[in-house]
Amino acid sequence: MNPQIFREYDIRGLVAQDLTPENVTLIGKAVGTYIRRAGGKTLSLGWDVR
Questions:
Q1: How far apart are alpha carbons 43 and 48 in whole angstroms?
Q2: Chain centroid to CA 9
Q3: The model's pTM
C-alpha cells in the first residue's frame, strides 16, 4: 500500500492504482477496528464528485 495516500485529515489516492478493492477493504477494517476499540458507535463518511 502506498503510504503517500494517507494525509493528516484524509486519504487520497488514484482509483485502481492506490485505492484497489483490497486496499480499501483493509483501510475500512482498520478504521472500524480503531473506532470500536475507542468506544465509538458511529462513523461519518464524506466524499466529493471531483
A1: 17
A2: 11
A3: 0.78
Q: Cell 477493504 maps to which residue?
A: 25
Domain layout of the chain by residue ranges? 3-37
For 21, phi and psi rounded to 5 degrees? -55, -40
Q: What is the Cα 35 distance to its own chain's centre?
A: 12
Res 46: pLDDT:
82
Give per-residue pLDDT as tens, 2-50: 999 999 988 999 999 999 999 999 999 999 999 999 999 988 888 878 7
DSSP H or E stretch at residue 37: helix 21-37
Closest CA to 17 of 2, 6, 39, 32: 2
